[in-house]
Amino acid sequence: MRLGISNDARPQATTLLIASAISLVLYFVPYVSAVTYPFQIFVTFIHEGGHAIATLLTGNSVASLSVAADTSGLTYHSVGGVWAQMFISSAGYLGAMGFGALLLVLIRHRVKARVILIGSAAIIATLTLIFGIFKPILTMSFLSAIPFTVFAGVVISAGLIAIAKFATPRVASFFVGLLAVQCVLNALLNLKDVFLLSTPFAPAVHNDAMNMAHATGIPAIFWTIFWIAIAFGMLWFVMRLYVVSRDSSTQPDLPFEDAPAV
């Protein structure tokens, strides 16, 4: 059975292919990769937001969420049991990948680009306001990180709203496709970096995989491979939404086949 792009998915798939090609150029061509910096900051917000939401879902509390100029991030939270620690540690990279996958699903189902952009802006603004400003001030923790976190959160939120308001529908749709591809690509590249840091010969650098290792006693490289497998599983599942069988005798392209002429 051969698989091909569904006819109704061709416009979205074309947009994603163009966005993917541009993303690869931006990442790997010298002196151009700086253009991806805002996207990397955006993914860091989503990554840390995943930790924060997972913390709340497990009944723990978040003290602060911060984003640094070098695109790293940090979420201070209370520590629960082993299962809570595992869920919270996994929610960063998988949360970022899941958000990118969600954008791909929304694109496939033709949700308006302006709605997606405003929704994304609302997420960044909420994370900035609650966990980047109020919580650090209330808990008096990591106050030095507030200025850049607030600056980045405001700029990204305002930028997304501006695109939603002033861009043409075609440009807004393309930007959503670019944002989705950037989220997926950043998540995979970050997991690649964590994998390299999890090898026995790598320098000791604190990361989420090390948190998993400390919580479970299982080596960090196992958890990194586990997350990579889940990330590719998410991507495969979403990509299946864009394809249908093209030559199956039992699964037509349409829900119902026309009855044969008599």
Description:
The chain has 262 residues and is mostly helical. The protein has one domain. Helix content is 66%, strand content 6%. It contains nine helices and four strands; from the N terminus they run E-H-H-E-E-H-H-H-H-H-H-H-E. It has a two-stranded antiparallel sheet with strand order 1-4. Strands 2-3 form a two-stranded antiparallel ribbon. Mean pLDDT is 83; it is low at 245-262.
Spatial order of the strands forming the largest sheet:
1-4
Low-confidence runs of at least 5 consecutive residues: 245-262
The termini sit apart by 30 Å
Annotation field: number of helices = 9
How many distinct beta strands? 4
State the assembly state of the protein chains.
single chain
Q: What is the strand content?
A: 5-15%
Taken together, the total number of domains comes to 1
What is the string of SSEs from the N terminus onward?
EHHEEHHHHHHHE
Residue share in helix: 55-70%
The largest pleated sheet is described as: 2 strands, antiparallel
Describe the global form: globular
The mean pLDDT is 83
Rg over CA atoms, rounded to whole Å, is 20 Å
Would you tell me the structural class of the helices and strands?
mainly alpha
